[in-house]
Amino acid sequence: MNVFVTPAMLAQVVVSGILSGALYAMVALGLALIFGVMRIINVAHGPLLMLGAYTTYFLYSALGLNPYLTVPVSMLALFAVGVLLERTLVFRVVDAPELSSLLLTFGISIALVNLAQLLFTSDLRSVEYLTGSWVVGPVALSKPRLVAFVFAGALTGLAFLFLRRTKLGKAIRATSQSREVAMVCGIDVQRIHLITFGLAAALAAAGGALIAMIVAIQPEMGQTWTFKSFLVIVLGGAGNYPGALLGGILLGLIEQVASLFLTTQLSEVVAYVLLVVVLLVRPTGLLGGRET
Amino acid sequence: MSKQLLTAYELVGGYGKIDILHGVSLSVGVGEIVSVIGPNGAGKSTAFKTIVGFLRPRSGRVVFNGEEITGIRPDVVIQRGLAYVPQGRPVFPQMTVLENLEMGAYTVGEPARVAKALERAYELFPILFERRRQKAGTMSGGEQQMLAIGRALMTAPRLILLDEPSLGLAPKFVTLIFDKLMEMKRAGYTLMLVEQNAARALAIADRAYALELGRNRFEGPGTALLADPEVKRLYLGG
Hints:
The complex is a heterodimer of chains A (292) and B (238). Chain A is mainly α and 292 residues long. Chain A has helices at 7-38, 45-63, 70-88, 98-120, 143-165, 167-177, 179-184, 189-211, 223-236, 241-261, 264-281; strands at residues 133-136, 139-142. Chain A has eleven helices and two strands; from the N terminus they run ααααββααααααα. Chain A has a two-stranded antiparallel ribbon. The two termini of chain B are 32 Å apart. At the A-B interface, helix 6 and helix 7 of A face helix 2, strand 6, helix 3 and helix 6 of B.
């Protein structure tokens, strides 16, 4: 246990925490949308992120595309995958008991991971494009993480702008507030489900594309992201979209601060313990209620 | 007799395998207020949900404005001019009053028509204009009910079905809602409502139906049913 914490160290973990927190927030917003609109916990959210990472990897390694330019391509590709999954499988469990949707999305998750192992092998891949850090005073800013932060912030901002300002975005929020009232307003709720699932997959893909440049790419990279996204929406309040932002940043900070005091293995545990504590003490999330 | 706008013939159906309706028939003529009364479990709300397409009848037909709409989804039915105000507090609680009203005009394309509809809703319910920037969920039950009715007006519907508009409201709002329904009739709207507040519902109705266990029991002008000793005994608590 490290007991010497200098202000510089603290500044470093806060900055690192915010940088990774923005990624958590963006990816978790996808999970929050699906939960808010369809009342489904999509266990396959992380594996969709993994597919986004591979899309970026192959576009970069095979076609030589600038990896940052692959972000929108990955998002579009996974939007299509999300729509396909919803249309063929997920729509069947929208009104089913929770266990059905959990089992189905768990099954999709396993299938996607195994498919990736089959097609891409379990070899570790990486996209080494930006490396190194910028040093600002006492704080080192990892270049790929800083750019990922900027992308994640911009994409999350765009997603909120879409939800708040456009007719379709408002229809998505309306559906998550009351499906019955949405229908009597003339909103085609099935279509909203389809678009929401696609949008959520696209947000996961953006996360995958960005972290492809930070960590090793392999078929099982996604599952921890399902868990972390789940933790983020629990922290922020399930079904509370701005809450996902707060939850994401909070998770990033907690992980980084924990790493200051604990070994790597132990600091991984902190997130899990946190999930249990929040569910016990404040199951409606820190912000509570619903805010879409 | 005025022109029939909506006719539901012999509806049989309910939730899943359990039938609630065993042959309910209802009709509404242009310009009328029609009330449907009956005890809990009589099938009033189920009949409305079946008419607007939330439930599919096992048998029976629904004809609206000369077209068959049996089993057509609610989001499609609204585009034919049949609006529905569900039971409870049917608003989007996290949206402002104005956003709620705009969602009511979701199927209306032209901004000019939306603006006109908004004007009409504000004219009928001035409180909605005052509260336009307030989140719907923070308003009182009566205000939320007015918002729900105002929202249903946004498509300029030919017929509005209201499921228990006075349920759970404070007495002064119950009176206000019934006054507003009369005002809407005078403004040319056609209304059909389900009500547990039978006396008031009959008092404002041109015609009324009393249901019992999923079947039609009584039918006639509202005032006639109100005076009928049998109706009084069964539906008005003596």
